Each structure stands twice: as structure tokens, then as C-alpha cells.
Fold these 3 entries.
Entry 1:
Amino acid sequence: QFWRFLLRRNLPASSLCKMHFALLGLGDSSYSQFNYVAKRLSKRLLQLGASAMLPLALGDDQHDLGPDAVIDPWLNQLWELLLRQFPLPAGCEVLSDRHCPAPRFTATVLDSLSYADIGQPVARQQPPSMAAPPANSTSTPA
């Protein structure tokens, strides 16, 4: 519905004049319509009066460094721009890329005894390729 709405021909050219956007397309340049949706969306937003905060970025899986060659610089530019327009409150600072927050959850591998200990007995099953054939089956050499 959003796409259909944007493509309506009767929308005034100033419909989105108060909108600012940054658009990152992800695609694969081996396809004939590489990043078609991102290109078309950007063009339409501009036609309707929106302002691009950054140039359209087109990530490409075929790039030697993958889509990250475009994504990483684009994200850095976006964060710089957003922090200039919307500074952090006093006493707050941007976390470094190396910051690793403490985990909120822990994972513990439980064996069959541990399952029984917590009241949820579960029979451990082997994958089908490892399981023995059913007792009533016969097999013949290939």
C-alpha cells in the first residue's frame, strides 16, 4: 500500500517537502535490475519534495569487499550527520565500535541428566542417518 501510495500520479510535488531521508540499497550487480527498488524509491522521494541527507548508497554483493564496502562508510556518514543534527545529551557519549555490552542472557548446554533434573525428561535422539534401521526392516547389499 505504501508503494502504491507513493506512485500515485496525483500527489503534489511538495507532498514530502518536510521529509529528510537516507537510503541504502542492497543488491547484486550481476542482476539486470541491480538495486532497482532503492533507485526508484530515491527518485520518487525526491520528485515529491523530500531531501536526501546523504547520496543514495548501493551495496553490491559482487564488490571485492562485498556490500560492506558501501555499507560501512555510509553508516559512518549517517551517524556523523545524525549526531550533528541531534547531539547527545550532556554526559552521554557514543560507544566505540569495540564496546561489547555485557550479555543479557546465558546459554547452557544440557545433557539428558540435566533435563531430568529440571523436570523435563527428553529422550536424546540420533539424527536419521545415525539411527539404526527399524527392527522389522530388512536390508540387502547394494
Entry 2:
Amino acid sequence: MGRTVKEMKTLTALLTWQAILVHARPQKQSAKIIFSNDDVQPLGHGDCDHEKGMLYWLEDGQCYDIGERGPCNFGEVLWFLKTPTCIPQNEVPNTKTTNELCNDDGLIYWPENGLCYSLLTQGPCPEGYWLELANSTSAEAQCVPQPCEDVELEVFWPESCKCISANSTNQGYGPDDVCGPGSELVWSPYGEGVCICKDNYYSDEEGNCFEIGSVGPCKDGRIWGIANGTIACIDNYNEIRVFDLIPANNPNGIPKSRTTQTQRCHVDENGKCRKTLNLRNRFGDSENFTSWIAGFERRGSEECKTPVCDGDMLPWLDGRCYQLASTGPCQDGSWLVLDSVVDGEPVLKCKSKKCSDGIWWPKTCSCIKNPVLLKAQSLDFTNIPNFVSPCDANEQILLNPYGDGICGCKDNHDRDTDGKCYEIGKQGPCDENEVFNSEDGVTSCIDAANLLTGSLI
């Protein structure tokens, strides 16, 4: 049976695709698509040149052309379905395009060499680059630089143009800051971070992650569990053990990868990747794969830019600017404060307020009650009878970036080298006929007679 050049190219691409499916693994990337490897025979078995379309037939130890009759019966041709096998000639899957053959198993076709590759692997790209989805409509990929140094430990968060720890918060930002408790971060097909629930955690309708067997969002003594293949609040019978509610691990014992594809999740209306119970690793057909990638949207731009904030506002992980010691993006009862400084960059966190109706005073480890926090983050005690301020006469209680109360100079005052606050333009600590002045943070005494209008700061 003769074959055209076009058929040979299609068969070669299919054969190479099958080889990648069975045993190919990127050298430096552990993020990969996981498939079952039961009943698989490597194509390289024997001395057959599989790149030229040759298959090894175990029964007689000979090499045969794929797509030819070879050792098969009349009306059959040799094909590769996990192992070399004979299939009816009219069942040869020659009606699909090369793209579809790759997409059937969640791979991307690379037209420059006719091979199939997993997204977010080096594939045909240079060192330090990986394959990233370029067009979800036609499932096209492109080689781009890896945005993070270690793509297993970090993911890129486009709203802040930063690489964020994927599953820990040892320092800097972590998944709890961008996703909420019980979450971790995985890579989307576009090479961006996406929120997903941790192992044995599943999300409710609002996208909050809760551990299986815990109270979670449930009430009336019910627990967060699995019932009839769905996640729901179920009755807490004493005979139900927590580990009975937890889905079994990967039967192959293969460690999970940090990609949305191997995590078997789909983007929901909250923008989080929701895990689906009992979803097969293999997509089965190209339509399923293209539908899956179509659920993702690229959030960043080609040139990532952090927002420029006005005044003393700072950028947060959602790409917006907020005032420190304000509720900002945080939930009720929490506020945005400075947590630490890492590599010269401020790290902001949403933390619970220590005082519900006052200011935390660290010197006494107690709350100063009754004062009302003004918009300018200062307190006015003039209308509070019998209140004794912990600060000096020319000072007021302010909030520092960490959310603690401190004593700061009042408006139009500055702190001199003796540690006290003095009003600018007044004598203060200066000699007679001199006034207190401050310029560029440096205080001094100047001659009042030579004082020019507008020279005071």
C-alpha cells in the first residue's frame, strides 16, 4: 500500500507525538502533563528507526512501516496505540489535522519541527524559555522567557509584576495574600499565577477554600465533605472518618506539578481555578482541550507595569493603590499595614485590627479607647473631656505603617535634635529674635528680622 508525502508527514508527526506521550520528559521542567503508563511499550524498542516511521514487532523481532500491512492480516495496517497493534485499514485516524492529534492529549503542535509539546515546558525553546499559550482560539504557543527563577516554587502575578511564593509565606507575599486561606498558586497556560485550593481543600460558591472534614462554611453541626460526587455540607455522623471524605491520591504515585493542566482545574466566575472531582487527566479529544484553554484569559500585558501611586499610597497585589493603615482591599475588621521590607521593597499585609474602636499602643500593650481616627490618620482629643494624651503638648497620636500608635509632631511642627516638637515660625528652642525653621527635614534657627514670607516650611 503506497503512501503520499503528506501521509508520511502526518504519520511521522503522529509517531513522534506518541513517543513524547509515552516517555519524553523535559530536562529542567517538572511541570508536565501526567498520563497513565500502564501497558506501554517504548517506541525505541529494538533497532527500528521510529523517526522514519518504523515500529518493532515483538512476535518476530522485525521492523515494519507504520501504516503498512506489515505483520498484520489482510485488510489491516500496523498502528501504534500505546503498543504496536493491527487495526482495520478503514479505522486509521487520518481525518484529523496535526493540531488535533496533539490537542487530543493536551499537547501543542509546533509547526517548525512537526512535534507536539506540553505547555509550560522548554520544548523547542532556548534555555531559560518555555512554551506559553499565545492564542487560545487556535491553541497556538510561543517561546517566551520564564518569568520566575524557579517555576516550581514561584509563580508570576501580573497585577504586581512580581514572582510570588506558590505555597508558602516565609518572606514576602504568598498565596494567602492573593487568594485567601487554604489556597496555593499554579501556572495558567499563559504563564500567569492562578489561585487554586490546596490538596484536600475545595472551594465554596464564593471561591473560599475549606478543608474536607472541617466545619468550613457549614452550619448546624454539618461538615464540609463529598456527597454523591459533589462538594457540599453534609451531616456529621460519628462513624464518618475524615480520611474517608478525602479523594485518593494519584494512583501512579507521581508528584503533582504546579500547572492548571495537571491540577485538573477549570477557571470559575471568581477567576479561581476550581478542581473537579473524578476528572480524567487525559482530555480525550481536541475539543475538550481547546474548550479548557478558552476558559483562561491573559491578565497581563506584554510590558508589565506596576501602578504609580500618589502621595503616600502604595501599590497592592491587585494592581491598585491604597493608603496604609486603612481597610483598603482587606475584609472588615482588618486593615492594610506594612509587614516587612524585603530587598528594599515594602511588603504589605491585611492584618486583623488589634483594637476595634481605638489605637493599639505598644508601650503599654493596650488599646487607647474613645479617640476617633481622622482621615489624615491623626487624632483630635480637644473634644474628649478628661483625656490625658500619652504624647507631649506639641505632639499628636499618629499611626505608623505597621498599624501601631506613635507620637508625632502636630501640623506645622517639626522635631528638633533634642527630640521635642516645636512650631515652625515661632521662637521654640531658639535665641531671642530667632525663629524655628525646617527645610528638607533639617531644622535650624534663623534671624526673625530677615525672615521672608514663604521661606518657612
Entry 3:
Amino acid sequence: LQEETTVHMTKMLKVNSSLKELHLGKHEMTDFGVERLCETLLVNSSLRYLDLQCNKITHDGAKHLAELLKKNTAIEILDLASNRIEDDGAVYLSEAIALHNNRLKGLAVVSNNIGAKGLVALAEAMKTNTTLSYI
């Protein structure tokens, strides 16, 4: 199992109510791992900082994260730098932060091959989300 560590981490998160930060950068995580992680974080209200930089997350993983952001308002910082979310992933995240999340303060998406479509979507989301202070 390529993402066995991620699966074990999700089991821990189900019962841990004190962890504030989770750094899983350079973890070789794919969309499968992100989906498992998001399922768990729906019931975790303590995590504030989720670091997923330098993984193999595509727009599909970004879609799972967007769904999480619509429901979990505990996360304040989401670092997706150096992944592969592209325009579609940026659009999914933009929809979540524009309308459904008022807790997220920071979203890192540098080095994700995001073009004009994704950048415009993120800029529009920042117009309606007054809590988000940096992208």
C-alpha cells in the first residue's frame, strides 16, 4: 500500500482532539490519500494547519479538499504548494472559500500550474471571503 502511512494517520485523527498542526509535505500523497484524510477531518475539529505541500495532489484531490472546507471550519491554513491541482482544482477551492468557509486565513497554491482561469476564480473568492488574508 503506497499510502499506508496516510491511512494510519487518518485513524489517529479520528480519536485525537488536540492536534493543531499536521505536516504531510513530501509524503508522496495522491488523491486517494487526500480523500481518506478529508473523510476523517470532517469529524476532527481541532486541526488548524494542514500542510500538504510537495505531494501528488491533482484537481480531484482539490475537489475533496474543497468539500472539506465547505463543512470543516476549523482549518485556518491549508498549504497545497507544489502539487498538481491546476485550474480546475483552483476553481473547486475558490467555490468553497467564496461561499462556505469563513475561517480559512491562508491558502498556499504556488507551483500548481494554475493559469488565468484558476487565478481569476481565486481572486473572485477573495472578494467575498473577508477572513482569507493570503493566497
